Amino acid sequence: MIENELEIYKVDEIYRDPKKFLKLVGIFRQYDEKKENENNILEKLFGDRDQNVLIVGNGPSAIENELGKKIDEKMNVIVRINNYEKKGYEKYIGSETHIWANCVGEKTIPRKIAKHINVLTFIGKQSFSQNYAKNQIMGKIENISEVKKIFHTYEIQKVFEKNYYFTNKLTTGLMCIILLSTYYNKPIYCIGFDFYSYSKNYYFNNNLPLSSKHNLDFEKKMFKYLERKGIVKILTEEEIYNIDQSLKLKIL
Q1: Residue 131 lies inside a defined structural domain of this protein
Q2: Taking every pair of C-alpha atoms in the chain, what is the biggest distance, in angstroms?
Q3: What is the pLDDT of residues 120-151, one digit of tens each?
Q4: Residue 17 and residue 171: Cα distance in Å, rounded?
């Protein structure tokens, strides 16, 4: 078995003790006037643990099915990643956004966001400081003075590498899946996770070059492994109709 395949199984250690993982990662607020209890921070960011959660990846398969109306009806928490776009794609990917997960990198395009959206950063650097995260996000949110719910993961890449011995740098999407699936009780639904296997990289028009620091073959195998374990589910037309709408709780 090749080394990358062996590394996939390292994720099992995270799910053996998800509370330990969440504590190691640590999450802090942009405006941390006072230090808050770890559970309070997680609840403010993610809400109730029994909600239906969807992470919308940016791959072309995200707009293969017109699921938008059902997504808005049945998903409590909708997470969008990096340079996502909604305008013109709502009938496929829904119109709501509750969490914007981003890497605040050079390729992250500045945007104006709704005040209710929770912002969550995943900075892929081992040499990390809280001030670095706070300063980086300043240039990515055009109306940052209006946005109060900004959260940062603390040294998440370092946690993967030093505590769980990952050698591959994970994408924002996969880090987001692992983090959210250690918090929520239900499987995490996903669409648009194509690992750049299509002729077009994104469902929207974006010619940004792909990052060379990620091992996409490894990411695809990791995603499939989490899918086999029931930790993630691809949201299909059949799947979304089977989600019990009575389970819909109050969103964040």
Answers
A1: yes
A2: 51
A3: 999 866 566 788 889 999 999 999 999 999 99
A4: 22
